[in-house]
Amino acid sequence: MNLSDIPVILSTGSPTLLSADASATVTDTTCPYCGVGCGVRATRHANGSVEVAGDASHGSNQGRLCVKGSALAETVGLEGRLLHPQVRGADGALQQVSWDHALDKVAQGFKDIIAEHGPDAVALYVSGQLLTEDYYVANKLMKGFIGSANIDTNSRLCMSSAVAGHKRAFGEDLVPGNYEDLELADLVVLVGSNTAWCHPILFQRLLKAKEARPDMKLVVIDPRRTATCELADLHLPVKPGTDVWLFNGLLHYLAQHGALDQSFIDAHTSGLDAALAAAVPRWPRRARTAPMSPRWPRPASWTPKPCVASMRCSPPRRRW
Ligand code: SF4
User: Is residue 8 within 6 Å of ligand 1 at its C-beta?
Assistant: First the structure.
């Protein structure tokens, strides 16, 4: 696969696309689709149509939008939206019903199940797009009224490990860096992230930085061989479940080879001895590379080595 085959880097937005319309209303906003947080300029014309372009003054995307953000204007219409409650009839077809009817039906369903099996027989799985107040009401309903703790959200599932990691490593839930840091880094390590598809504009920024500074190295740690690996100097396809062993091993290796930055450690960290003591018994001799999917052609030169310390678990496309 060539980098130019990666669909996410094909589309860019530009403020110059916006038509000159004195009566238009321009709103600076943010693309909601992924965590890159690209700045968007949405222009609403007098005839009701909407144009969307990247905000050139925004620090995240500097005017660029990926294919998802570029299509935002197509999503503001009402066509295809669910505007009324619908209930599936006995014939299997969905029929429009009133809100009262729909709410009564849901309430009766909850009531019947709880009466027969108890409150823990029901659960709510809540959207990650709700606001804090919405979560509060949903939790009140489930925990305070129904009497079960069976409520979760995809926002907690997808971010809880990151939040726990940030709090333990940095003391609070924040990302200790910005996109410029990544562009300036000599080594960027992406762990379990298919940035090319999931954070396309950030990937474009890395791509440009690497083109301008070929010495910049990119390592991808991921059981899958994703589009992001096309840019990587090294892909480590660790076996799922062995990433902690890998990081313990890397920490142990750095300490063993005197490669720790002692002045940084003294100034900005605490608990290194405890971290090393915890890492050493878990020295990852058992870490293994993931079996390659038949969908990912295995190069003839591929020789899997469970040698994490040398960081040569997979055949890099370009060796350092
Ligand atoms: S990278 Fe694409 S999807 Fe993500 S915020 Fe930017 S425009 Fe939206």
Answer: no
